[in-house]
Amino acid sequence: MATRQRKTDSPAPRAKAAPDMDAGRTAGEKRPPLDLGALGHHTGYLLRRAQLVVFNDLIAAFGDVRLAEYSVLMVLDNNPGVSHGDVAGALGIKRTNFVGLFNRLEKRGLVERRAVPTDGRANALFLTPGGRKLLGRLTRIADQHEGRIRTLIGEAGQQQLQTLLPELIKLGEPKAPDED
């Protein structure tokens, strides 16, 4: 089947050439930062950029341990015997994703599940001694990481963030029916 080409009286418009950002600059001279306009004042944009920097720093420091794994270890250390659903809910992880995450930790000997005597279908989750040892090492690394943030933004700034961010997290929580 042949395709018909449409006749036009004028040639297709050409894209405007971008201004030469390097004009008049010597080799090695840095470009000025781009103007982000209103984007530079959007809370979500700034949070995402900050989150990437903070996470990348911590990921590099943790090595082969994922941040979600560290979070699970921390929650289990502070709440021994909780259920899969409780941990997943507290960390904002989908239950189906949490099961795979927990299974990986269990294969590494860091966590264990024990049957709940009063409910044959339920499991209680616990850290193993190996999990406690790894958590101790990771906590020291995380404390150093938090110290770098505190050095950068000051103790008052860090406390402000730790007060304000949980308020923003509430935006993602389901509303009660009478809150509409």
In short, what is this structure?
The protein is mainly alpha-helical and 180 residues long.
Structural class: mainly alpha
Strand order of the largest sheet: 1-2
CATH superfamily of the domain at 65-138: Winged helix-like DNA-binding domain superfamily/Winged helix DNA-binding domain
* Proportion of residues in β-strands: 5-15%
Helical coverage, percent range: 40-55%
Descriptive overview:
By secondary structure, the chain is mainly alpha-helical. It has a domain at 65-138: Winged helix-like DNA-binding domain superfamily/Winged helix DNA-binding domain (Arc Repressor Mutant, subunit A). Helices cover 52% and strands 8% of the residues. It has 5 helices and 2 strands, in the order H-H-H-H-E-E-H. The chain has helices at residues 43-62, 67-78, 84-91, 95-107, 129-169, and strands spanning 111-116, 119-127. A two-stranded antiparallel ribbon has the order 1-2. A hairpin with a 2-residue loop joins strand 1 and strand 2 (119-127). Helix 1 runs antiparallel to helix 5 (129-169). The chain is extended, with a radius of gyration of 25 Å.
Keywords summarizing the entry:
single chain; Arc Repressor Mutant, subunit A; two-stranded antiparallel ribbon; 52% helix
Topology:
Elements: H1 43-62, H2 67-78, H3 84-91, H4 95-107, E1 111-116, E2 119-127, H5 129-169
Antiparallel strand pairs: 1-2
